[in-house]
Design goal:
Number of domains: 1
Radius of gyration: 17 Å
Strand order of the largest sheet: 1-3-6-5
Strand content: 35-45%
CATH topology: Immunoglobulin-like
Helix content: under 10%
Structural class: mainly beta
CATH superfamily: Immunoglobulins
Number of helices: 1
Distance between the termini: 54 Å
CATH class: Mainly Beta
């Protein structure tokens, strides 16, 4: 992974670590993807999640340009987050899904970023985010 991506992820993590559920992603796309890629949303707030039950949400991406879009990288910011997507190029007018799963294995607020690099701007990733709060781990049932 190149140096600029690490700086981008580190900055987003730094600014997003406090008050994660109140954090809102700036949805303005300053990359060369603007006007070529359309996201259904770039941030999904998961609210309160049960401890230990993974939560999966889906982002929709549409290629609104006249050229095919290739995926260069789709990287979550943490091992607690995974992604699933069809890595085939997205032709003009086509839509694809990016499934993001947070493992909910840690109590408290979270703000997880997935950096997406495309052929339209391979040097500048677009951030998609899931954030919310994982409820406290249930206490063990009392023995009788």
């Amino acid at each position: 992974m190149n140096h600029s991506l690490w700086i981008f992820i580190a900055a987003l993590l730094y600014f997003g670590q406090n008050a994660a559920t109140a954090q809102t992603l700036n949805t303005t796309d300053y990359t060369a993807n603007a006007g070529k890629v359309e996201w259904s949303t770039r941030q999904i707030i998961l609210e309160d999640l049960p401890y230990g039950i993974p939560a999966t949400r889906t982002f929709t991406i549409k290629n609104i340009s006249d050229k095919a879009m290739e995926w260069f990288e789709v990287n979550p910011s943490c091992v607690c987050t995974s992604v699933d997507f069809d890595s085939a190029p997205i032709l003009s007018g086509e839509t694809r899904l990016v499934k993001v799963t947070y493992n909910s294995a840690k109590e408290g607020e979270f703000y997880r970023i997935v950096a997406v690099k495309t052929s339209f701007d391979p040097d500048n990733p677009v951030a998609i985010v899931i954030n919310g709060n994982v409820l406290a781990k249930p206490a063990a049932a009392e023995k009788q």
